[in-house]
Write a structure and sequence with these properties.
By secondary structure, this protein is of the alpha/beta class. 45% of the residues lie in helices and 19% in strands.
Length: 485
């Protein structure tokens, strides 16, 4: 028997591999996931069973309803419940924004129904147009912190700017402040020496979903793609800029990096705080006592800005950010201006943009001329035909790399956050966006968009149609992978 196994080991391994692959195919069928995604996995599993199993293991397992992400029990604590009660959605709040929001008020109601996310009115915000501006403000606020600092980032590196930020965290922890840091284990690169320094200084830090051999895991599923900073419960930061030198433009040799972040003061910081505490509860063994000092009282003047915080991920019942973007598109009357570094949309978003453009809405999209992902670049190009044909104007940013994730609609609504316009952000990763219901702030983002157009080339539809057959082949190939990337 042993001799037979030795002589036929490779045949047996192939048979076992096919059995496992077929089993995975049946599992995918039973899950009733997106048909396009189902076919993509089945093709890979049938024709490349070993590779297919590896891809399915790393990317295909659906955890949205899995207990691994049942981490929201912290929200049942009495203090958090009272905070949610203070921010509770009510008709009086709606009336204050209903006069100018028109159909956009549907966004407020949608997010409240899907995720019980309150509309907050007492806020001031500052739009930060690049990394240099973001870190200038963030470092200043970190140094002025008096009670606690909470950071949650997809990428944290102990390079120049990263070391500067992490050293401030160490200094504040030594002063007696409570400092907590969450970093994604795949996205971040923090040396053992720096981790030891953080621990010795009193900074509590935890990786999000640790993995073995993170260098080789690439874009594994279910990553914490959020960028949240909460300082003393009074100031919050959210947007596209991680903690790394690549987001700065000082002495940059790889080209200009265009990004958008924002600073918030006011009630919406409480929502960011709740999302941070929820994730902290998941990544740490600490049974953190939630104090009222995490949620200080807010005093604002008449210049208040109405905000909602939209969070989505495997722990939410709905694809909240995607649904908000979809609703904003279909309720647009005048214009829709979108900037995204990764445009690999689902059918819902494509259809919504087509209908808007054909209905006379000015729909414009900015994507990078040069992408940091070969597959994403060509997959993204494959979707442009459907948009251009419907009258959507597409522009490719050529000054450097555009990493901003923004949308402005009708001078009434805008959003800044971490979510890309792709399947991964909409359905797989943990993301967070700020929804801005304010004319003045929306006009600021509109101005930034129009300035970026000056550094962009419009895609000509005829030129696009006449691109080489080789380009079309690359696009078709990469599009097959679009539900997986």
């Amino acid at each position: 028997m042993l001799d037979f196994i030795k002589e036929n080991i490779w045949y047996l391994l192939v048979i076992v591999n096919y059995i496992l692959a077929i089993s995975a195919v049946f599992t995918i069928f039973l899950k009733r996931i997106n048909p396009t995604k189902t076919l993509s996995y089945i093709i890979v599993l049938v024709f490349f069973p070993f590779l297919g199993l590896l891809v399915y293991y790393l990317f295909g397992q659906e955890y949205r309803k899995n207990k691994i992400f049942s981490k929201k029990h912290i929200l049942n604590k009495s203090v958090v419940k009272s905070i949610n009660k203070e921010l509770e959605f009510n008709k009086a709040q709606i009336k204050k924004v209903d006069n100018y929001l028109e159909e956009k008020v549907k966004l407020v109601k949608l997010l409240h129904t899907s995720d019980e996310e309150p509309l907050t009115l007492k806020n001031k915000i500052k739009i930060l147009k690049d990394g240099d501006e973001k870190f200038k403000h963030l470092l200043k606020d970190l140094k002025k912190a008096e009670h606690h600092i909470h950071l949650e980032y997809y990428i944290v590196k102990d390079d120049n700017i990263g070391t500067e930020v992490l050293n401030v965290l160490c200094d504040k922890a030594k002063e007696g402040l409570k400092v907590r840091l969450i970093y994604d284990d795949v996205g971040s690169k923090i040396s053992t020496r720096m981790k030891r320094k953080l621990s010795d200084s009193g900074v509590k830090h935890h990786p999000f979903m640790p993995v073995l051999f993170s260098k080789f895991t690439g874009k594994m599923n279910y990553r914490d793609h959020r960028k949240i900073a909460v300082i003393d419960g009074k100031i919050g930061y959210v947007g596209g800029i991680n903690i790394s030198d690549e987001y700065l433009n000082k002495n940059k040799t790889k080209g200009f990096w265009r990004d958008t972040h924002m600073c918030i003061e006011g009630e919406a910081v409480k929502s960011l705080q709740i999302h941070f505490l929820s994730t902290w509860d998941f990544v740490s063994d600490e049974k953190l006592a939630v104090y009222k000092t995490f949620f200080p009282e807010v005093e604002m003047d008449k210049d208040d800005v109405a905000l909602q915080i939209a969070a989505s991920g495997p722990d939410t019942d709905w694809a909240n950010i995607m649904e908000v973007i979809f609703t904003a598109i279909v309720t647009a009357n005048d214009y829709i201006y979108i900037t995204t570094p990764y445009f690999v949309p689902n059918e819902q978003i494509i259809t919504a943009l087509q209908i808007a453009a054909k209905s006379g809405v000015d729909v414009r999209l900015i994507v990078p001329e040069k992408s940091d992902s070969w597959i994403v670049k060509h997959a993204s190009n494959s979707f442009l035909d459907a948009l251009l044909k419907a009258g959507v104007k597409v522009y490719k940013y050529n000054k450097g790399f555009v990493h901003a994730k923004t949308m402005v609609v009708d001078d009434l609504f805008s959003t800044v956050g971490t979510s890309n316009m792709d399947y991964r952000s909409f359905n797989i990763n943990f993301e967070v966006n700020t929804l801005i219901y304010d004319v003045e702030q929306s006009k600021i983002l509109k101005k930034h968009f129009l300035e970026d157009l000056k550094n962009s080339n419009e895609v000509n539809y005829n030129t696009y149609l006449n691109r080489s057959s080789f380009d079309k082949l690359k696009e078709s190939y990469c599009r097959l992978w679009s539900p997986l990337i």
